[in-house]
Amino acid sequence: MNTILDIYKIGRGPSSSHTMAVKSIVLDFIKKHPNADRFVARAGGSLALTGLGHKTDFIMQQVFEESFKFTEQSGKVILDKTYQDIENPCPLEMTALYEGSQDVKVVYFSIGGGDFAKKGQEVPAVQFEYDSFAKLQSNLNKHIKDPSKLVSKEEFEHIKKAWQTMQFCIKQGLTKTGVLDGGLNYMRQAKDRYSKKDYLSAFAYAVAEENASAETDIVTCPTCGACGILPAILYYQKLYNQLDDSQIYRALIVAGLIAEIVKMVMPTSGAAYGCQAEVGVACAMSAGALAWISGGNIAQIEAAASIALEDCLGMTCDPVLGLVQVPCIDRNALKANSIMNYVNYAMFNMTNRVRHFDKTLLAMKETGRDMNERYRETSTGGLAEQYLKDEKEFFIENPYS
Ligand code: SF4
Q1: What average pLDDT does this structure show over 169-188?
Q2: Cα of 270 from ligand 1 centre, angstroms
Q3: Which residues contact 28 (CB under 8 A, 6 or more apart)?
Q4: Cα dihedral angle (122, 123, 125, 130), rounded to 10 degrees?
Q5: Are 107 and 93 in contact (CB under 8 A)?
Q6: Which domains does the chain carry?
Q7: How much is the pLDDT for 400?
Q8: Which of 118-122, 296-300, 365-369, 394-398 is least confident?
Q9: Pairing of strands 218-219, 101-112
Q10: Three-state DSSP class for 173?
Q11: Whose CA is nearest to atom 2 of ligand 1?
């Protein structure tokens, strides 16, 4: 059974599916084949198409180099854009080569939010306690004043660590200026937004920019690409509404339980279901958490999470140059600014309160299934395609640097 630890993974971005999970896969395979002479990691699908921008090749090479520092073993990395697997958009074929005996080949899938599975694996790769809001409802309702009763001591300790990591990341991001690597000439915004007293945006930019640069550990909530929204909301509440840390831990539990439900229904993966499954879910988590902070009852928490998800239905994933920068970073800040509206609608719009999170979630899943793969983290459609058409116009020297 997975726990809230699996929702809030702590580590380096820029992508939970393209770097975090890939790192875990390569480590898992090396560990299972300690006596192999050589290894080959062949990434396909979205991992190959956006791999350079998402640092997929870099992280695989790094794992090989670190693992084989004191051995004669070696590893080769391939981003193979022709390699597709009909079962999953993010396949990673791992091969262990042995001198004089048979090679071993295993296909893994990166399934979103830093999770992975093996092709052919029978049990569901992620298995949480709650698979619908309807099921969570009575338990959360019973402990609405103190949701910490719904998690173990270990989970609670992890939540504390996650909150420390989130705050550190915001503080780091607020100190930095300059252009992010990757070729887009993206200028960091966080410090500037802070100086202009646009604090909520500044906090979201700070985390999303730290994630894009992979310079500081972040917390998946539910993914790396969408990691700026929830910390921004909570840090703003701490600083400007005097919310103490013990309440923030409980808000993180509410948000985490909402993410658990989502993950039981569908992966939080832009490559599988578009950005609605990443930023959309981050909005649902944040709106649910803020509704709880605002004293909302269980129906209002559900309505807030549901309205947030509704507003993100159909949101595509088309990162320019395969980087987790455009549209990802602005989107974190813009959506952080929408959370209060979602919550206000849920708390005060008493005449129209028919909201079912489970139904909205199923709608999101179906929408994602119908989405053309050009808009599911392949960087072949949408913004990614348009920017490439006007390459000369966009990839000029940054006029503000
Ligand atoms: S567009 Fe959304 S899903 Fe795609 S990489 Fe950016 S944040 Fe992730």
Answers
A1: 97
A2: 6
A3: 108, 116
A4: 150
A5: yes
A6: 15-118 (3.30.1330.90), 133-394 (no CATH)
A7: 42
A8: 394-398
A9: unpaired
A10: helix
A11: 275
What distance in Å separates the CA atoms of residue 95 and residue 213, rounded to the nearest whole number?
A: 30
Nearest residue CA, atom 4 of ligand 1? 317
> Measured between alpha carbons, how far is 285 from 8 in angstroms, rounded to an integer?
12
Ligand 1 atom closest to the CA of 223, numbered from 1: 8
Amino acid identity at 99: E
Nearest residue to 358 (alpha-carbon basis) of 309, 290, 321: 309
- Reported as a pLDDT band with limits 50, 70 and 90, residue 388 is confident
Total residues belonging to the chain: 401
| Closest-lying ligand 1 atom to the alpha carbon of residue 278 | 3
pLDDT of residue 398: 43
Neighbours of 98 (CB within 10 A): 13
The dihedral over CA atoms of 326, 327, 331, 333, expressed in degrees to the nearest 10, equals 20
Bridge pairing between strands 38-43 and 74-79: parallel
Q: Which one, of 312, 311, 313, lies nearest residue 367 by Cα? A: 313
Q: Give φ, ψ of 240 to 5 degrees.
A: -110, -10
Neighbouring C-beta atoms of residue 339, cutoff 10 Å: 28
Distance CA 186, CA 66 (A): 31
Cα dihedral sign for 365, 367, 373, 378? negative
Residue type, 319: P
For residue 216, give every residue at least 6 positions away whose Cβ sits within 8 Å of its Cβ, in sequence order, or none: 12, 168, 169, 172, 173, 210
Q: How far is the CA of 104 from the centre of ligand 1 (A)?
A: 34
pLDDT at 141 over 80: yes
Whether residue 375 contacts residue 381, with contact meaning beta carbons closer than 8 Å, is answered with yes
| Confidence (pTM) | 0.95
Dist CA 64 CA 161 (whole Å): 28
Q: In the Cβ-directed half-sphere of 351, how many Cα atoms lie within 13 Å?
A: 0
* Segments of 261-386 assigned E as strands: none
Q: Is the pLDDT of residue 148 over 70?
A: yes
Dihedral sign computed on CA atoms, order 297, 5, 8, 270 = negative
Cβ–ligand 1 contact at 328 (below 6 Å): yes
- What is the spatial distance between Cα 258 and Cα 136, in angstroms, rounded to a whole number? 9
